[in-house]
């Protein structure tokens, strides 16, 4: 089983749609979790952290299920500018010494 | 508000040449990282450092070397460039927070 596994893409959705990305991780001792966004030919940028209780930031909602080792990202009311690759990222330790990145899921939002 | 700065942004090398990719950060982060990203693939960790004078291998260290003489700088050295090292290289830094990335160096070896 890969350390961090994401839905294969691309996801093609119309503007205004709701889209969900899923991610599973293999290390049950993983401590913290993040979603990064990467635009084409650009660097990854932190989108949001994922907390055990779930968290929301505007149109974005992240959920964590430790028992199932599963993380999700929900995007409501998709915008053209949401088109990017979304990376699921897991920190296997209590510090931030290394992070494990998933390969990413590409989202294409069309008019 | 510089954050993580990488130079150069683009470079073409011939097989067997050497070069150093520069990375500097102004956030006083202890941790610094080098990743490579091949087309359509995820990030792979090459080397990382948890502080000045300390470096550790990541997933794909072969063909690369690093040094960390100061908190700010973490250069990546390619000694004998090979076509398999054609990639986009990202430097990142982090402290008590997730990593911040530089905008990358696109390296082609022909």
Describe the protein:
The complex is a heterodimer of chains A (111) and B (110). Chain A is an all-beta fold. Helices cover 0% and strands 53% of the residues of chain A. Chain A has strands spanning 4-6, 11-14, 19-25, 32-38, 44-50, 55-57, 60-65, 70-75, 84-91, 100-101, 105-110. In chain A, strands 2, 4, 5, 9, 10 and 11 form a six-stranded mixed sheet that branches. A five-stranded antiparallel sheet of chain A has the order 1-3-8-7-6, with no helix packed on it. Chain A is globular, with a radius of gyration of 13 Å. The mean pLDDT of chain A is 91. With 110 residues, chain B is mainly beta. In chain B, 0% of the residues lie in helices and 51% in strands. Chain B is built from no helices and eleven strands. Chain B has strands at 4-7, 10-13, 19-25, 31-37, 43-51, 54-57, 64-66, 76-78, 87-94, 100-101, 105-109. In chain B, strand 4 (31-37) and strand 5 (43-51) form a beta hairpin. Chain B is globular. The model of chain B has no long low-confidence stretch (mean pLDDT 93). At the A-B interface, strand 5 and strand 9 of A face strand 5, strand 9 and strand 10 of B.
Which keywords apply here?
heterodimer; A: 111 residues; mainly beta; 6-stranded mixed sheet; globular; B: 110 residues; 7-stranded mixed sheet; 4-stranded antiparallel sheet
Question: Total number of helical segments of chain A?
Answer: 0
Distance between the termini of chain B: 35 Å
User: What is the structural class of chain A?
Assistant: mainly beta
Shape of chain A: globular
> Would you identify the regions of chain A where 5 or more consecutive residues have pLDDT less than 50?
none
As residue ranges, the low-confidence spans of chain B are none
Radius of gyration of chain A: 13 Å
Query: Mind describing the biggest β-sheet of chain A?
Result: 6 strands, mixed
Helix content of chain A: under 10%
Strand content of chain A: over 45%
Main β-sheet description of chain B: 7 strands, mixed
Oligomer designation: heterodimer
Proportion in helices of chain B: under 10%
The span between the termini of chain A is 37 Å
Overall number of strands of chain A: 11
């Amino acid at each position: 089983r890969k350390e961090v596994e994401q839905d294969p893409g691309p996801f093609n959705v119309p503007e205004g749609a709701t889209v969900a990305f899923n991610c599973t991780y293999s290390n049950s001792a993983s401590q913290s979790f993040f979603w990064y966004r990467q635009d084409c030919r650009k660097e990854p940028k932190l989108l949001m952290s994922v907390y055990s209780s779930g968290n929301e930031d505007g149109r974005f909602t992240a959920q964590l299920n430790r028992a199932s080792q599963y993380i999700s990202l929900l995007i409501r009311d998709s915008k053209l500018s949401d088109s990017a690759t979304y990376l699921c990222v897991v920190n296997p330790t209590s510090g931030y010494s290394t992070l494990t990145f998933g390969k990413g899921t590409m989202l294409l939002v069309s008019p | 508000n510089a954050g993580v700065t990488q130079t150069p942004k683009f470079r073409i090398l011939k097989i067997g040449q050497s070069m150093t990719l520069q990375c500097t950060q102004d956030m006083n982060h202890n941790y610094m990282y080098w990743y490579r990203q091949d087309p359509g693939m995820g990030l792979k960790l090459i080397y990382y450092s948890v502080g000045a004078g300390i470096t550790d291998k990541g997933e794909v260290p072969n063909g690369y070397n690093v040094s960390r003489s100061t908190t700010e700088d973490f250069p990546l050295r390619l000694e004998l460039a090979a076509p398999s090292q054609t990639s986009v290289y990202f430097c990142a830094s982090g402290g008590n927070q997730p990593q911040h990335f530089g905008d990358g160096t696109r390296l082609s070896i022909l």
